[in-house]
Design brief:
The chain has three domains: 2-94; 100-231, Sandwich (Immunoglobulin-like), CATH 2.60.40; 245-464, no CATH class. The protein is built from nine helices and 20 strands. The chain has helices at residues 2-13, 17-95, 209-212, 221-231, 245-250, 278-291, 355-375, 438-451, 458-464; strands spanning 100-110, 113-122, 128-139, 142-147, 151-153, 158-166, 185-188, 194-197, 205-207, 261-268, 296-299, 303-307, 318-323, 327-333, 337-338, 350-354, 380-387, 398-403, 424-427, 431-432.
């Protein structure tokens, strides 16, 4: 049929079959060339698209790498920030860490139970909470375990404690070493950390609150033992209530003071946080005028009396205060015996406290405060005494030593430098108002003597006669 068409074309247009064949061949070649050009163009475009896709993939990879580097840098910054915060917190906790030390007082056996009395003091800058003195020692019938009731001590505060032999054995891992005796001092701080101090070793063992988050199984034995002692006391073994805020403030010895003085404070046990009533204030007002006729009330907002009446309570008068508890405190100016002045002008005068006078002052004031506490219906009380050895007023004499009047001076093991004679405070255990706290008063005197470097003080203590005076004079000296 094709040839028929060529023949028809040859007839119609005058084109021979040979020419038609040539034209057809040329047309087919042109079509092939066009197809080749199209294929080449398509190949070029595909190559370009592949290259663009590759470039995009490389860019995506580089972007991913940049994102990873940024994430790594952010993680490192977060780690550095966390380490910085940890270091800041660590520094804060170290700065406000409690430090417990103990001083041996006496030991013995009472009603078949061994006991040991110590003075426990916090010489750190932060409070020592739930403080415990523990001791395991060899007894006549094997090993015995002694412990005291827990106490909380403010910075610089000390208290006398009696550790009594317990029937129940301690936690098996409460002590680390095997040698007897073993005496750890355990407490907690305000940040939730727990410390164990061992006499003779300066650095404590610490169990932190982060460690505590690991669970009970991760706790060391001494932490478990401490919690058992704090939480598992049997009825009848509850300690005396802690001191009230007013009593703690009355015997607080940190800060600057205008004058040399001694505060004698007493609070009811257990204390109340209620403001003293008008009836209680009237009772104490009558009592103050009995012991200090020239004293006058100086404030309506606070139950305060002072002598001379017109002076500022922050200068150098005699001051009595009634605070919640009820707590009664007497601030008594001290008059040390002045030593010969230094040759150089401008040197602060130094002096010695007359110890018999100080002991007499404490004895008389404790007896009088016990008497007024009876009027206030208190049955159990505790007392505290302080000694402030220097003041900021220009005429103040710095206390650097003790003198004993006609009594024999005990041996002085160390002549303590003046800068180490610092404000001092003592707090007694609770006692009944119908008893006289001779032992507690004796411990206060012994502790004061030790601060001034004196040892072997038994003869002096006996000569001071710290037993209850038969009667108190009507007025204070």
């Amino acid at each position: 049929m094709v040839w028929s068409l060529f023949a028809a074309a040859d007839t119609i247009f005058g084109i021979s079959a040979t020419d038609a064949t040539a034209f057809a061949t040329i047309a087919l070649a042109v079509v092939g060339i066009l197809a080749f050009v199209a294929s080449a163009f398509l190949a070029v475009m595909t190559s370009r698209m592949a290259k663009a896709t590759k470039d995009e993939a490389v860019a995506t990879q580089e972007e991913a790498k940049a994102t990873l580097d940024q994430a790594t840098a952010t993680k490192e910054q977060a780690q550095i920030a966390n380490e910085t915060l940890q270091e800041i917190r660590r520094s804060r906790e170290l700065e406000w860490r409690p430090i417990l030390v103990r001083t041996e007082l006496q030991s013995g056996v009472f009603e078949g139970k061994a006991y040991r009395e110590v003075n426990l003091r916090n010489i750190g800058r932060g409070p020592a909470l739930n403080s415990l003195f523990l001791r395991e020692e060899a007894g006549t019938e094997g090993t015995r375990f002694l412990t005291c009731d827990p106490v909380s001590l403010a910075a610089g505060e000390g208290v006398d404690l009696r550790a009594i032999e317990k029937d129940d054995p301690p936690h098996p891992n409460l002590f680390d070493r095997n040698e007897l005796p073993r005496e750890p001092l355990i407490c907690q701080d305000q940040f939730g950390n727990t410390f164990r101090f061992v006499p003779g070793f300066p650095a404590p063992v610490m169990w932190s609150r982060e460690d505590d988050e690991q669970g009970f199984d991760a706790e060391p034995g001494w932490v478990k033992g401490m919690k058992e002692l704090l939480w598992a006391r049997r009825p009848g073994e509850e300690p005396d209530p802690q001191s009230g805020h007013a009593f703690v403030q009355a015997i607080w010895v940190q800060g600057n003071y205008a004058s040399i003085h001694s505060t004698i404070a007493m609070e009811r046990v257990p204390p109340s946080d209620l403001k003293p009533s008008d009836a209680e204030r009237a009772t104490v007002d009558t009592w103050v005028k009995e012991i200090r006729p020239n004293a006058r009330a100086s404030s309506m907002q606070q139950a305060r009396w002072q002598d001379p009446p017109g002076d500022s309570p922050y200068q150098n008068p005699w001051v009595a205060e009634l605070d919640p508890g009820p707590t009664i405190s007497i601030r008594n100016p001290l008059q040390p015996r002045v030593r010969p002045a230094a040759a150089d002008k401008g040197v602060q005068l130094e002096g010695d406290l007359v110890l018999p006078d100080l002991a007499n002052l404490w004895t008389r004031m404790i007896q009088r405060q016990v008497a007024v506490m009876r009027r206030l219906q208190a049955r159990r009380v505790r007392f505290g005494v302080t000694m402030i050895p220097y003041g900021s007023l220009a005429d103040q004499v710095r206390v650097v030593g003790l003198t004993f009047q006609d009594l024999a001076s005990p041996p002085q093991l160390v002549e303590v430098p003046a800068h180490e004679i610092r404000p001092w405070a003592y707090r007694s255990a609770a006692f009944d108002v119908d008893t006289w706290p001779a032992a507690a008063l004796e411990r206060a005197i012994r502790e004061l003597l030790r601060m001034f470097g004196y040892v072997a003080v038994d003869e002096l203590i006996a000569a001071l006669n710290l037993q209850a005076p038969p009667s108190a004079p009507a007025t204070a000296d």
